[in-house]
């Protein structure tokens, strides 16, 4: 069974950071092929499965906003290429913008809850009356990655429809992938890997028997990340010290 693996790089990065802890070393120098092979090997229903294609979908960090992050990303991408940890690098874009939105806190199940005025901080209307139902608005700087989900979907469907792979693994918890994943399940077995500590996206769920069947779901654990690391030194490439 020839397996293609399609990775949403930013979904994996921020999910892994949430699992392992921000600022914690030992998880970022990921050998993506080793991680994919480890996850596939644990699936007893996929007999003689072999990872033959790893597509890594990410975007270039903006050096103007994060110079160190850009340098570390460059080192990592060179390490992935040097070790043949990936077969294809699909690049999206990374943009900065100002966003305006209601002020909120994290509520139940991670969902936003709007913050309303209450003493000792209250808003008053033109009649000098308290307005506890008012909404605070805030403008914040946001850096967003664009294109990874489209690249994951495109490569997944192209490889499945062309017969390049007999099964597929998608490493992402992005519900926008619902359509391509559902379509792929009608043609090949599909494994869905949630790289976050949150609940799996409901739109990516289905019965293991739909379509051709033999589908599976998995939630990454910190041990999977720590056990799938590149060598600290690869030729003249060295793992960043904070990693």
Mean pLDDT: 93
How does the overall form come out from the CA principal axes? globular
Give the strand tally.
11
For the record, give the distance between the C-alpha atoms at the N and C termini, rounded to a whole number: 34 Å
The neighbouring-strand order within the major sheet is 6-3-2-1-7-8-9
- Model regions low in confidence, pLDDT < 50 over at least 5 residues: none
**How much helix, percentage-wise, in residues?**
25-40%
Main β-sheet, in a few words?
Answer: 7 strands, mixed
What is the overall number of helices? Answer: 6
Strand content: 25-35%
Give a structural overview.
With 243 residues, the protein is of the alpha/beta class. 27% of the residues lie in helices and 27% in strands. The strands form three sheets. It has a seven-stranded mixed sheet with strand order 6-3-2-1-7-8-9. A two-stranded antiparallel ribbon has the order 4-5. Strands 10-11 form a two-stranded antiparallel sheet. Strand 10 (233-234) and strand 11 (237-238) form a beta hairpin. Helix 4 (148-161) packs parallel to helix 5 (178-185). It is globular, with a radius of gyration of 21 Å. The two termini are 34 Å apart. The model has no long low-confidence stretch (mean pLDDT 93).
What's this model, at a glance?
The protein is an alpha/beta fold and 243 residues long. Helix content is 27%, strand content 27%.
What descriptors fit this protein?
single chain, 243 residues, alpha/beta, two-stranded antiparallel ribbon, 6 helices, 11 strands, 27% helix, 27% strand, globular
């Amino acid at each position: 069974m020839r397996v293609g693996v399609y990775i949403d790089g930013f979904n994996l990065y921020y999910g892994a950071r949430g699992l392992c802890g921000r600022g914690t070393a030992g998880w970022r120098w990921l050998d993506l092929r080793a991680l994919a092979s480890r996850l596939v090997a644990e699936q007893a229903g996929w007999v003689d499965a072999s990872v033959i294609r790893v597509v890594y979908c990410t975007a270039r960090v903006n050096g103007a906003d994060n110079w160190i992050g850009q340098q570390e990303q460059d080192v990592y991408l060179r390490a992935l290429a040097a070790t043949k940890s990936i077969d294809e690098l699909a690049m999206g874009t990374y943009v900065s913008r100002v966003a305006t939105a209601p002020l909120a806190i994290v509520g139940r199940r991670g969902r936003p809850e709007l913050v309303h005025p209450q003493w000792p901080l209250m808003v008053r209307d033109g009649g000098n009356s308290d307005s506890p139902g008012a909404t605070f608005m805030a403008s914040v700087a946001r850096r967003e990655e664009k294109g990874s989900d489209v690249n994951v979907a495109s490569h997944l469907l192209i490889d499945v429809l062309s017969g390049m792979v007999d099964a597929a693994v998608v490493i992402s918890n992005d519900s926008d992938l619902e359509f391509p994943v559902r379509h792929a399940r009608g043609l090949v077995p599909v494994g869905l890997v949630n790289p976050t500590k949150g609940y799996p996206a409901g739109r990516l769920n289905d019965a293991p028997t739909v379509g051709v069947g033999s589908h599976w779901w998995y939630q990454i654990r910190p041990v999977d990340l720590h056990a799938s690391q590149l060598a600290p030194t690869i030729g003249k490439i060295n793992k960043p010290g904070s990693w």
